[in-house]
Every structure is written in structure tokens, then in C-alpha cells.
Amino acid sequence: MIKGWKEYKLGDLIHIKHGYAFKGDFFVDHETENILLTPGNFKIGGGFKDDKLKYYEGPIPKDYILKYGDVIVTMTDLSKMADTLGFSAKIPNDKNKIYLHNQRIGLVEKKDVDFDIGFLYWLLRFEGYQKFVAGSATGATVKHTSPNKIYAYKFKAPSNTNTQQKIAKILSAYDDLIENNLKRIKLLEEMAQKTYEEWFVRFKFPGHKTAKFNKETGLPEGWCKRKLEFLCSKITDGTHDSPKQVSNGYKLITGKHILDGFINFENAYTISKEDHLSIKKRSGLEKGDILFSNIGTLGNIGVVTEDFEYSCKNVIIFKYKHNYSNFLYTYLSNNSTKQKLSNQSTGVAQKFYSLKFIRNLQDFFPPNKLIEKFDKKTNEIYRAKYNLHNQNQHLKEARDILLPRLMTGMIDVEKIEIN
Questions:
Q1: N or C: which end of the chain has fewer CB within 10 A?
Q2: How confident is the model at residue 117 (pLDDT cuts 50, 70, 90)?
Q3: Burial bucket for residue 115 (CB in 10 Å: 0-12, 13-18, 19+)
Q4: Is 296 inside a domain boundary?
Q5: Half-sphere exposure of residue 397: CA atoms within 13 angstroms, side-chain side
Q6: CA 131 to CA 312: how far, in whole Å?
Q7: Cα gap 389→373, rounded to integer Å
Q8: CA separation for the pair 359, 227 (Å, rounded)
Q9: What's this model's pTM, rounded to 2 decimal places?
Q10: Nearest to 332 by CA among 381, 368, 299
Q11: Dihedral (CA of 265, 270, 273, 274) sign
Q12: Which residue, 102, 128, 159, sits at the end of a domain?
């Protein structure tokens, strides 16, 4: 055993409090300050995810209101691989939201022992721990764990709490940088959208003061109704089949992997080279393409920023023309466009947009020169956004490499200087 380290058992250090069964009668679709936490609020690998919030309007027991910094774990997982089961997340610092301790979520409470809760948070994001929890899970389709199963996990850790805190501080520094970059990305996205709305919704584009307006359409002269495909060199889609999953192969992206303008590969499964090449002939997916979810997570949009190959399913692929990329992306992601499209979606059980519908979609678009001006105006905004995203990818990779090494003592943390 490493000098200064000893063996612990989670059950000796923590207690896990079960959540409250909030009544479904009070679940609402519109946004409220009350956020009902679910297993969907956990990222693969741990950490808090706020892209699929559920809202609640009803009585709230005060003992089930979570506070900033509380450590929670997910006790249920809907995926085949149980890839979030048991992982931890921290309640974010948001004064405008009340986070509710729902059932299927466990609140980690440290017992009266000399052990750092920050270290425990990262331990609950350690792959070795999660594999232990997933390996003892029950259920075929939906995986479940329990406090007792989590309590049974044994691990080795430094006995000195200062060393525990230093390990937690190193890892948390990466998450802090990632979170700051995400906030900056959001601000950049808002800047681009504000410019779009100023120019193309309120018509305060460069030269608008001298522009003449068409009395019939109410639009500036030069604007005309055109098909969306005039902005593109090609509009196609991914496979309509369901390729078999293999252990090693090419990632298969669907609409649920498109989020906040980017592609998230975390829970994408892999398909064979043969299936991938077959899909590639159809889609020709490459860096710079814009992906648009046309079923399920309807309207999710993201840009391909990676160089490596992957396949896609249930998405529309836009291959934009030069100097039109920023406009096309901003147009598709603008709320007014999303509303127009939503009103025209088809399907009963599940709404969708067909490839034919998207190719034939018409709208009133500005003159080409104004579109090109918008692209030039927003180039730096989008370049900064993609650079920050790439930084985050590198930060995540570095953190994920460090995590197991710090948790197993492979790296002597005392030799690491923290500013």
C-alpha cells in the first residue's frame, strides 16, 4: 500500500438520503423556479447537466430542497450500459432556481468522520467505483442501485485530509475552467443571435435607414421567397436503418447527441466499419457540416467540429455554401425559425421533418450580399465559440486522464504545485 494511504469503506463515511416522491399531478411543461431533479441531470462520467430540466408547481417538503454544493448520486439509469448509475453531481449555484430532491436521486451526507467531502465527490466519479456499482445493479431495461450497494465499495485513499483536499482541488479546477468556458460560449451564441434579430427580424441592418420597403410583404426590397437549399451545396440525411452495435468501431450520432450547437459523443454507441462506410456514401459527413435533428429531439442543431469520422442517423445534414455558414446556422437555431418549423412538423406518435420537406422549405430571405455581410460580422464570434469548445474538449481529456491516476496514487500529489 502507498505510504500515507489506507483502505476505507464508503458505508463508514457517508449516508445516502432517499429523495421524495413528488406527485405527477404537479409536473408542468412551462418553466418555473422549481427544478425537479432526475437521472437525466447527470452527465456520463459525473457532473451536473441542465439541458433537460423538469419543472414542478406544487407543495414542497422543506427537507427535500437541495442547496448549492450538495453532492447527489443517481440511483436509476435507463441506458443499456448503466453508464451514469451511481455517478455524482453537485448542485449548481443558481439563485433563480430551487432544486428539488426527487426520488431515484440520493443525497450524499458525510458522517461525522475526518474525511473530505470534495474528495468523496470525485471518488464517486471514478470509473472503478462506477463499474463496481453498475456490476451489482438490478433490472434488465432500467438499472437500479441502492445505498447499501454503494456503501459496500472499498477503496484506498490518503489518510491526510489536506492531501484529499488537494486532489479534489486539482480536479475541480478543470471543471471550473470548463464551466467558465461554457458560460462564455453561451454569451457568444447570444451575441450572434442578437445580431441576427437586429438585422433580420427588426430590419436594422447596415444601410436600413435608406432602404425601401415592399408594401405587400412589409419587407425591405431585395428580400424574396426562396428555398432553404439556396444556402447549401447539398442537403442530405443519415441512415434510416438501425445498424448493429459493436464493441469497437465508428460512433453513430443521432439527434439526442446534438446539443447547444455541438455534437456530444459521450453515450453514442459504435457500429462496424462496413455499416459506417455504407452510411458515409449517403451522407458524406465532414467537418463544418451542420447537423439538424429531424425526429425525436426535433430541431436540435450542431456543427461538426471534429476531424475524426463518425456516422449519423435521424439527422438532416446541411453542407453550406461559402460565406453562408454563420447565417444558415443562426437562422436554423433562431427561436422564430424553430417556431415556424414546429408548426409544420408531421407525425402523430412522434413529430418529424422529412428530408423532402426541409429541401423544399421556403422563407423570405435577405439578398446574398447582406447574408455575406452577416457571415463576416459574426466570424470572430463563431471562431471564438468553437475555440472555447475545443479548449473544453482538451480540458475534459486532461481531467479524465488525471482522475484515475490521482485516485489510485499513481501521481504523487504532494509534488504538484497549485496556484
A1: C
A2: very high
A3: middle
A4: yes
A5: 6
A6: 28
A7: 25
A8: 7
A9: 0.88
A10: 299
A11: negative
A12: 159
Q: What is the secondary structure of 162-220 as a DSSP string?
A: HHHHHHHHHHHHHHHHHHHHHHHHHHHHHHHHHHHHHHHTS---TTGGG--B-TTT-SB
Residue pLDDT, tens place only, 204-255: 999 999 999 998 889 999 999 999 999 999 999 888 888 888 888 888 888 8
DSSP 3-state of 289: coil
The answer to whether position 336 is within a domain reads: yes
* DSSP assignments along 348-369, one per residue: SSS-B--HHHHHH-EEEE--HH
In a domain, 212, yes or no: no
Residue burial 242-261, b: 16+ Cβ < 10 Å; e: rest: ebeeeeebbbbbbbebbbeb
pLDDT at position 141, please?
83
Structural domain of residue 406, as residue ranges?
161-207+372-419
Q: Which amino acid type is present at position 343?
A: N
Is the pLDDT at 348 greater than 60, yes or no?
Answer: no
The CB-side HSE value for 312 (13 A sphere, CA atoms) comes to 32
Grid cell, residue 51, equals 439541458
- Residue 142 and residue 267 in one domain: no
Q: Can you give the CATH number for the domain in which 400 is found?
A: 1.10.287
Tens-place pLDDT, residues 349-408? 567 888 999 999 999 999 999 999 999 999 999 999 999 999 999 999 999 999 999 999
Instruction: Name the grid cell of 91.
Output: 448542485
- Determine how many CB atoms are found less than 10 A away from the CB of residue 99: 25
Could you report the per-residue pLDDT of 21-37, keeping only the tens digit for each?
999 999 998 999 999 99
> What DSSP line would sit under 43-58, residue for residue?
-TTSSB--SS-EEE-S
311-340 mean pLDDT: 90
DSSP 316: E
- Both 171 and 116 in a single domain? no
Give me 82's grid cell: 448503466
Q: How far apart are CA 365 and CA 223, in angstroms?
A: 6
Q: Could you tell me if residue 14 is inside a domain?
A: yes
Residue 308: pLDDT band (50, 70, 90) is low
Pairing of strands 54-56, 27-28: antiparallel
